[in-house]
Amino acid sequence: MKTRNILLIGVGIGLGLFGLFEFFSVSFTEGGILGAILIGLFIGKTIDKHPLRYAFFSVCVSHLLAFTLLFLFTEDGKLVLQEGDILLPFFLGYVLLRTLINSIIGTFGAFVSFNILNKQS
Amino acid sequence: MGQNGAGKTTTIKLLSGLSSPTQGQIFVEGLDMASESEKIKELLGLVPQDSGFYAERTALSHMLYYGRLKGLNKKASRKQAQLLLSRVGLATERLKKVGSFSHGMKTRLGIAQALLNEPKILILDEPTNGLDPLGARQIRQILKECGNKGITIFLSSHKLLEVQESCTHIGILDKGKLVAESTIEKLRHLEAGGLITVGVYNLSSEIISLIEAQKFVIKTELKARDLLEISVNSRKDVKPEINRLIVECGGRVFKLMENSLSLEEAYFEATGLKQ
Amino acid sequence: MNFLEIRTILEDELFQSSKSRYSWFFGGIFIFLSLIAIKYGTKIYTLYSFFFLKFEGVPYSLISYLLVLALGPFFVLIIAFDSISSEIETGSIRYIISKVQRSSFILGKGVSLFLGFTIVLSGIAFICLIYQYFADNAIQFEKIFFFWLGSLFYLGSFISIFLFISTLSANNKISFVMSLVFLGILIYFYLQGGESLLKYLSPYSYGIDNLKILKESQIKTEFTGFFKNLFFLFLYTLSFLSLSLFAMKRRDL
Predict the structure, then answer these.
(1) Full domain range(s) for residue C161
(2) Above 0.95 for ipTM, yes or no?
(3) Which residues in chain A are closer than 8 Å to C170, comparing Cβ atoms?
(4) Residue A121 falls within a domain, yes or no?
């Protein structure tokens, strides 16, 4: 499979899981981490070269997209965008920090699955 | 034998248990690698390519450690270590740190550790790679001695001279496939079915008939007025015999050569590569 | 698994570590820091007495345990991160694996690290005892034993974690970075705190929970919790050790 396709699938899985966790009211923290680990494991298993950077990129993109959709299409998100003058930078900081941490966790997941499946050679 | 990336190191890794096959089976001395790898390890001595030793340790300390890992007790391990280090010419350097060793010395230490506990098969991955001519010669000498002691030596190389000097049987790998496997003689077409060209100034029908009457001759073909090609079927070198027959018949031989392939030509023929 | 092979690797590791300046240096720093902490324990005790309310006398074992909790994982990281990866990086592992089983190699390395830290922790426990003796405190063998046991299981879990990462890594650089990343992740998991399930994925959670037994004057009240935490830490160690064995078995060397 082409690397670009795997990247897209990774982002797709991330968005799907985000939606699923949102639907079942799983917290952002736990859901985000679980999603990041799953994406990382998937990318590490599928890809043959540079799994870490692709896992990081996939988790990062899927998180940013998911949060953007959340801000644009949910009532709470709209409220924050319209009314949250002071709160907005706080939320953005939260989103970026969460994205960064989860991307690192996803990267670690990819590292484990890539190496445990013995692809380093 | 095979060019870079042909699969020589992979084969050796598979045989010595450093890698696992994704498919297929490996048998060493009739033992299945999948189920009896520990027994196989006891039979093998491995000299891997470009593998490092602990720079801070002495040659003797390495040998003692590896001897213990091979299941020898402390006393036996020390005894074998001293013996093998002197066999590979490292007796005087046994207490020096391996970090200060040259590449050739490290290879010799590698061979010494592989000979611990007297393996039946010694596997070497390009042992003379990166060595100067003298170092390479020393290694070949050690291997010859091991061969004389009855140890089967399995080595990978892309140096044709080394292979020609050290080996009796050759397998040629190309892109992961074994494309030829035989004795050197067979690969070079020296055995059955060899061709000999003989040049005689005064070539006569008598001489040709005499040659054709020999048991080892399959057929003859006159290539020119004074040039005869003889197809022979013999494991022996029959050139002196042919020469004697011609001279006894009064012929004056100016050329007598075997039309066998050089190992290089045999290699290119087997791999289908152009020289 | 072959016990003779494990023993040989273990003996060699311990012997080589005993000659290594590197291990003496970091082991020494660890013991020295606990010595300082114990020495100034009285001051800490006075300043933060609210923390040790229920304690009778200066809580030397508690102070040492706090040090192990905070710095122990970093010391384990520094000592353990290259235990396998350096052998893979230099290729020396090939000489070993061609002679012994892979599981023996991992277990030999793991047990030697474990024994090494047992020695360091025993040193700290011994210092605690000496201080208690000279400070005319009542010698609390029980507390020191709990400190020793709790620290051992706590550090044991980190040893198995870093051994696992070292097994996965192709060289020391990757191993060091990934070990640091994972340590950060574990701290992050613990920091989620509260009702979050994530904190139970981190050995920090069980290690910090074991503080209770060293704080309480009545040890028996926290007995069950302590051993439950030790059990979870043991499970943690066991699972990461199994993962290391699994990864090693599949690895091309």
Answers:
(1) 3-250
(2) no
(3) 115, 120
(4) no
